[in-house]
């Protein structure tokens, strides 16, 4: 979700899902230790609870970055052991770390020693074409012994050579049953299911069998799934109507744009909001038009909404 779930996208998602736990895009240790920390870590207080997802493989560097995350106010530090991109592999982190569970355990222990907030791990079920359950069971077992208690399971293998990141999200078969087996084998741990979850009914079904679900591309392409899940999970809770969400979003965009944030970055997280409804193509077209964005500023959101109606 690099360049997708930035702070602006997360703020919009919070408007739709008041109780969801939000995760940052993966941020590398190098970016934090040698870059603009505030640019990477700043977030709006409304985002709580929000987790910082780190990419790295050096225990000391991860511990330093975990401290930064806690100092910035994040509620959780998550280590990414699931991203399969070649760029990430060249940095020796992401999914390729699953081949070195003892190193991951050292990373987890270093981060746990550095912070008081929970340290969690996101991972795949296996590497390349080895679909043996024993591989992931042993990986989780080593991390459990190191003190990790929350695992976010992307229920596919990661193929490290020959598949693009997009193909890695779609081609390796989903094996939800193996994620369920992990819960049976480690009943004292928390397991959150990720991968291929595209509708509220499937999410609710798996939330009854595991401890939660994580949505990635579904929340980006069809953000209303977050609002639907919020309604279904808390039927007695009063949630904002779409018009009220729009008003709050326009207020946020106006304030951020006045601080110099480019409008095309602010609106990209809402392009899929109206997907499946009449006028959705017009909504996307208007909010993707550089000339309209320049000419109308944040007011383009109201005009695009009126065109929908």
Structural notes for this entry:
This protein has 309 residues and is α/β, with parallel strands linked by helices. The chain has 17 helices and 8 strands. Strands 1, 2, 3, 4, 5, 6, 7 and 8 form an 8-stranded parallel beta sheet that branches. β5 (119-127), α7 and β6 (150-158) form a beta-alpha-beta unit. α1 (7-16) packs antiparallel against α13, α6 runs parallel beside α7 (133-145) and α15 (280-287) packs antiparallel against α17.
Q: TL;DR?
A:
The chain is α/β, with parallel strands linked by helices and 309 residues long. It contains 17 helices and 8 strands.
List keywords for this structure.
eight-stranded parallel beta sheet; 17 helices
Report the helical percentage.
40-55%
What is the count of DSSP helices, taking H or I runs of 4+ residues?
Answer: 17
Order of helices and strands: HEEHHEHEHHEHEHHEHEHHHHHHH
Q: Report the uncertain regions.
A: none
Report the average pLDDT across residues: 94
Proportion of beta-strand residues:
5-15%
For the secondary structure, the number of strands is 8
Biggest sheet record: 8 strands, parallel
Task: Report the structural category.
Answer: alpha/beta
Helices and strands in order, then pairings?
Elements (H helix, E strand, L loop, with lengths): L6 H10 L5 E2 L3 E2 H6 L2 H5 L8 E6 L3 H14 L3 E6 L4 H5 L10 H14 L4 E9 L5 H13 L4 E9 L6 H4 L7 H10 L4 E5 L5 H8 L4 E3 L2 H5 L2 H10 L8 H17 L4 H5 L12 H8 L2 H7 L2 H10 L1
Parallel strand pairs: 1-3, 2-3, 3-4, 4-5, 5-6, 6-7, 7-8
């Amino acid at each position: 979700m690099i360049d997708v779930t930035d702070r602006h996208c997360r703020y919009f998602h919070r408007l739709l899902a008041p109780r969801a736990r939000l995760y940052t895009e993966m941020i590398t240790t190098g970016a934090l230790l040698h870059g603009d920390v505030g640019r990477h870590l700043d977030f709006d207080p409304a985002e709580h609870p929000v987790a910082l997802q780190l990419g790295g493989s050096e225990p000391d560097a991860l511990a330093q970055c975990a401290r930064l995350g806690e100092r910035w106010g994040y509620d959780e530090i998550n280590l990414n052991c699931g991203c399969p991109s070649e760029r990430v592999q060249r940095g020796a982190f992401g999914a390729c770390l699953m081949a070195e569970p003892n190193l991951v355990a050292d990373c987890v222990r270093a981060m746990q020693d550095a912070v008081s907030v929970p340290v969690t791990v996101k991972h795949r079920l296996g590497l390349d074409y080895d679909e043996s359950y024993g591989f992931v069971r042993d990986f989780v077992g080593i991390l459990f012994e190191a003190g990790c208690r929350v695992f976010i399971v992307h229920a596919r293998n990661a193929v490290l050579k020959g598949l693009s990141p997009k193909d890695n999200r779609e081609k390796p078969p989903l094996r939800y049953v193996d994620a369920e087996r992990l819960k049976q084998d480690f009943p004292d741990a928390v397991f959150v299911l990720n991968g291929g979850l595209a509708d509220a009914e499937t999410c609710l079904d798996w939330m009854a069998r595991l401890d939660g679900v994580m949505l990635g591309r579904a929340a980006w392409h069809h953000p209303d799934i977050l609002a639907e899940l919020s309604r279904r999970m808390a039927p007695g809770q009063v949630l904002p109507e779409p018009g009220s969400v729009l008003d709050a979003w326009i207020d946020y965009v106006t304030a951020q744009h006045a601080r110099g944030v480019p409008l095309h970055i602010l609106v990209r997280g809402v392009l899929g909001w109206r997907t499946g409804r009449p006028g959705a193509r017009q909504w996307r077209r208007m909010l993707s038009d550089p000339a309209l964005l320049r000419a109308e500023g944040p007011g383009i959101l109201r005009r695009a909404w009126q065109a929908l109606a």
